[in-house]
């Protein structure tokens, strides 16, 4: 049978990361490819206790819930947001099935075919897929290690009149970058000047390695709360299986997202939301986040120390100040997809960087994840990876 899919499905793309993961999961390959948190420190007892409290609270806990999400959890998130300088109300917090769903719902209510979304380059692959699935044209803004270049941003706002700007300003996926406060403010100023919204995606902001550094969400600068939709998630600070994230922003936008969500799934799992509420109430999540920071910092340091042994000139990288990834750039002629083939033969995997680019892929880049593997595995995997990296001829 010839299935006649709707025209918009021609914009659907399969995720190359997912495809790679599927292949390497079968073998004896140490994978630095996925963006997975550390399983060995998952707070499994706390999660289990939280679910027990949900079941003990009676049959009502298994009923349909509000589209906006479980109110006590939204109140707890409100308090968490306040610590980040974002002053909102539970009515302006929407619980979603991970921040991935925020990206989708926001795109769904904002984008018509031909609309422009401005992004960093490289940026989060699954966000690019969502924007394109609604027929949007994604346009990359130049950036350096401090964030988007305000000059280029102005030029592109002027030229393209985008629907919104999508950014991951704190420990980005894929390149681990953290924007300066000045660049955050400049983006916000331009978004006010050109009446353009900002979608601020912040799944990694809590995983900060150095206590003394301050990374204020862009939403916290937006005093009137008119221009920024902020999204974050419990996937990295608790566990991803809870599939719980949230969005906060202007009331009118949130209401429209609620309507879109109603059509999409009525509401996200309320058992999970209730469990998270008990977990936040009875478990010291801040101490757990500190544990995550310490563990990831240790793992990142092991990886980076290995990379320091690579012959100078072959590869460059920046030591991340948080998050889960190191972004590596090889010499210009290098194609890391070919390199991946060699790496997999040696028993290690990474993600080639090309797919994270908006339109001019840099084939010589790749991303490695340091959060998921134990130190022993990191050492073994980096021994293998270094062998492959050192085999690249210097040009
Ligand atoms: C930048 C970014 N945004 C959003 C997500 C989606 O996270 P979740 O849907 O688990 O909250 C991820 C997941 O890795 C991510 O890296």
Task: Tell me about this structure.
- The protein has 395 residues and is α/β, with parallel strands linked by helices.
- It folds into 2 domains: 7-42 and 287-390, Aspartate Aminotransferase, domain 1 (Alpha-Beta Complex), CATH 3.90.1150.10; 63-282, Type I PLP-dependent aspartate aminotransferase-like (Major domain) (Aspartate Aminotransferase, domain 2).
- Helix content is 41%, strand content 14%.
- It has 13 helices and 15 strands.
- The strands form 4 sheets. Strands 2-10-9-8-7-3-4 form a 7-stranded mixed beta sheet, with helices on both faces.
- Strand 8, helix 8 and strand 9 form a beta-alpha-beta unit.
- Helix 4 crosses helix 9 (251-265), helix 11 (285-307) runs parallel beside helix 13 and helix 12 packs across helix 13.
- The mean pLDDT is 95.
- Residues 35, 98-100, 124, 168, 173, 201, 203, 233, 235, 240, 245 line the site of pyridoxal-5'-phosphate (PLP).
Question: With helices defined by DSSP (H or I, 4 residues minimum), what is the helix count?
Answer: 13
Oligomer: single chain
**Helix percentage range:** 40-55%
Ranges with pLDDT <50 over ≥5 residues? none
The top-level CATH class of the largest domain is Alpha Beta
Shape: globular
Q: What value does the Rg take, in angstroms?
A: 21 Å
Number of domains: 2
Q: Secondary-structure element sequence?
A: HEHHEHEHEEEHEHEHEEHHHEEHEEEH
Query: Major sheet: order of its strands?
Result: 2-10-9-8-7-3-4
Strand content: 5-15%
Distance between the termini: 52 Å
- What's the CATH superfamily of the largest domain, by name? Type I PLP-dependent aspartate aminotransferase-like (Major domain)
């Amino acid at each position: 049978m010839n299935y006649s899919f709707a025209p918009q499905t021609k914009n659907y793309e399969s995720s190359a990361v997912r495809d790679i993961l599927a292949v390497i999961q079968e073998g004896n390959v140490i994978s630095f490819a996925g963006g997975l948190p550390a399983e060995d420190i998952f707070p499994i007892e706390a999660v289990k206790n939280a679910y027990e409290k949900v079941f003990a609270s009676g049959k009502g806990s298994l009923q349909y819930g509000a589209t906006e999400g479980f109110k006590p959890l939204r109140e707890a998130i409100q308090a968490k947001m306040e610590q980040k300088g974002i002053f909102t109300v539970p009515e302006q917090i929407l619980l979603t099935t991970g921040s991935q769903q925020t990206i989708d719902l926001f795109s769904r209510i904002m984008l018509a075919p031909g609309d422009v979304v401005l992004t960093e380059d490289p940026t989060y692959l699954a966000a690019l897929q969502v924007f394109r699935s609604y027929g949007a044209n994604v346009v990359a803004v130049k950036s350096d290690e401090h964030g988007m270049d305000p000059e280029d941003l102005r030029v592109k706002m002027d030229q393209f009149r985008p629907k919104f700007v999508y950014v991951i300003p704190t420990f980005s996926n894929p390149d681990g970058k953290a924007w300066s406060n000045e660049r955050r403010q400049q983006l916000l100023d331009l978004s006010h000047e050109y009446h353009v919204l900002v979608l601020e995606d912040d799944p990694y902001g809590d995983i900060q390695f150095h206590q003394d550094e301050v990374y204020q969400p862009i939403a916290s600068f937006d005093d009137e709360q008119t221009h920024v939709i902020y999204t974050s998630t419990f996937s990295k600070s608790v566990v991803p299986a809870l599939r719980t994230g949230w969005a906060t922003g202007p009331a009118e936008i949130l209401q429209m997202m609620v309507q879109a969500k109603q059509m999409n799934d009525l509401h996200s799992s309320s058992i999970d939301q209730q469990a998270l509420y008990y977990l936040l109430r009875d478990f010291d999540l801040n101490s757990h986040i500190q544990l995550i920071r310490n563990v990831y910092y240790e793992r990142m340091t092991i990886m980076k120390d290995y990379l320091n042994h690579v012959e100078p000139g072959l590869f460059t990288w920046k030591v991340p100040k948080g998050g889960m990834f190191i972004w590596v750039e090889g010499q210009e002629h290098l194609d890391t997809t070919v390199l991946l083939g060699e790496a997999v033969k040696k028993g290690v995997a990474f993600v080639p960087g090309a797919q994270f680019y908006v339109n001019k892929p840099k084939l010589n880049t790749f991303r490695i994840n340091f959060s998921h593997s134990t130190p022993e595995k990191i050492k073994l995997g980096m021994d293998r990876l270094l062998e492959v990296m050192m085999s690249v001829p210097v040009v």
